[in-house]
Amino acid sequence: MSAILTIDQVRSFAVSETGEAIQLLFLAKQAGVEVAPTVCITRTALRQVLDENPKLMSFVSSTHDSSDLVKLRVAEEQLLHSFSKIKFSEKFVAEVTQIYQDYLGGSFVRIIPGSAENITGDANIFDSLKSLWAAQIAGKLESKHSQFFSSLTDPLIIQTQLQATASGSIYGTKIRARLGVKADKNDHEKDTDIYFFSKSGEESSSEIASKEVFFQRSSDKFIQKKTPKKSQKTRVIDKQTAKRLFEIYRTIQRKILKQIRITWEKDATQLIVTTVEEFEAQIPEKKHNKQKLTKVAIVLEDWPEEIHQDCTSMHEAIHLASDISHTKKDQKPSQHWLRVSTPALLIDLHEVLHAPFSGAIIDLVEIAHHLGDQGPDFSTTTKLCKTSLQKIPKDELKKAKPILLQLHHPNKHLLSTIYTDELLGATCAKADFEIVMNMLSELEQ
């Protein structure tokens, strides 16, 4: 496998391999939005780098094996020092260099996560990778992260940066815009214009900031410039550009089906999205008299006849259901329940509402295994499940045949995910019935 994946290649890989940030950018690009050229150094590629530096790995082991505090501190210092001298293979260097020049344009880039900004030049990228990696390790050593070894190889993102004339963010119906590029010193409300939009997509009002300075990129740093007087109290972007940004935001939101926050940059010729992240504002709770819903847990002592998890696509499952029906013509019609155990089947969940199926048994644990998702909450898997349910019209869900969740181990988070008002409920073993009922009671409160 290549050490680096472009944004167009990441969809066929698990989120654990690429990280969520580039996967969300891929969805934005798939929706027709122009996004910043972005690549991912995968978890596998970084693990390979560690394997090729055995001395470094011996220091990693020392930081966990030693009970002597003095020896532990020495091992930590050696580890940090060794990260600054880490050696990348010729193949790795060649791949990174080529993709920097050909795909990222050989201009300013940043490395995520971290604060490595305005990186230019081949050699500078590798120096920045080393220093960023060492900084991450220092934080993890200090916190004694429980998943220290796996977090050594968290995926890294490299992204092109514009020498922007304007940049900002969008959330909900609010666009923020600043002159120049984002720097720590101008990432405040007093330095940014705010444009408010109505739900119909029209700008309703604005707050224009007094912008005395702005920032430009230079190699490894930001340069502060004085704002010309005529620009200090005028709009950063015109109304047409603001409306275009708001339409871009809505396009991405319709694709992802979540509340999101995006960041953007603009120069004389381009307007690009740089990040997409799920984002929920804190909304004060309002007291209201809402009718309490009564939820029921379904207990199946014997599973109905199911279409086996060997099916990797809905096409295969339909054919298998038809074959079973043909072999049992003289018998009472069978109830065919599709065991949804792969991401592909979950995405096509709406197909289970129609013949030849009688319902679905969603095995979130098995799907999580396919995605490389980590428990106990299986966040990526449950998000995919919610997205699949949201694609089904509510009136269809109300008339739908049962869609059930197989609970290997009863889990309140998984229950609340699948147990929407429109669905019948969750299956569980008879022995777990009381546990599930207690969880449902808590969810209703």
Structure, briefly:
The chain has 445 residues and is of the alpha+beta class.
What tags apply to this protein structure?
single chain, 445 residues, alpha+beta, Dna Ligase, domain 1, D-amino Acid Aminotransferase, Chain A, domain 1, 3 domains, 6-stranded antiparallel sheet, 5-stranded antiparallel sheet, flat
List the helices and strands and how they pair.
Layout: E1 4-6, H1 15-18, H2 20-30, E2 38-41, H3 43-51, H4 54-65, H5 69-84, H6 90-102, E3 109-112, E4 116-119, H7 122-143, H8 148-151, E5 156-160, E6 166-171, E7 174-179, E8 193-197, E9 203-207, E10 213-218, E11 221-226, H9 229-232, H10 239-256, E12 260-266, E13 271-278, E14 298-299, E15 306-307, H11 314-326, E16 337-340, H12 343-347, E17 359-362, H13 364-371, H14 379-390, H15 394-399, E18 403-405, H16 412-418, E19 427-428, H17 433-444
Parallel strand pairs: 14-19, 15-16, 16-17, 17-18
Antiparallel strand pairs: 1-2, 2-5, 3-4, 3-5, 6-7, 6-12, 7-8, 8-9, 10-11, 12-13
Written overview of the protein:
- With 445 residues, this protein is of the alpha+beta class.
- The chain folds into three domains: 4-159, ATP-grasp fold, A domain (Dna Ligase, domain 1, 2-Layer Sandwich), CATH 3.30.1490; 166-278, 2-Layer Sandwich (D-amino Acid Aminotransferase, Chain A, domain 1), CATH 3.30.470; 298-444, no CATH class.
- It is 40% helix and 19% strand.
- It contains 17 helices and 19 strands.
- The strands form five sheets. A six-stranded antiparallel β-sheet has the order 9-8-7-6-12-13. Strands 1-2-5-3-4 form a five-stranded antiparallel β-sheet. The chain has a four-stranded parallel β-sheet with strand order 15-16-17-18.
- Strand 3 and strand 4 (116-119) form a beta hairpin.
- The radius of gyration is 26 Å and the shape is flat.
- It starts with a strand and ends with a helix.
- The relative contact order is 0.09.
- Residues 282-302 and 421-431 have low confidence and may be disordered.
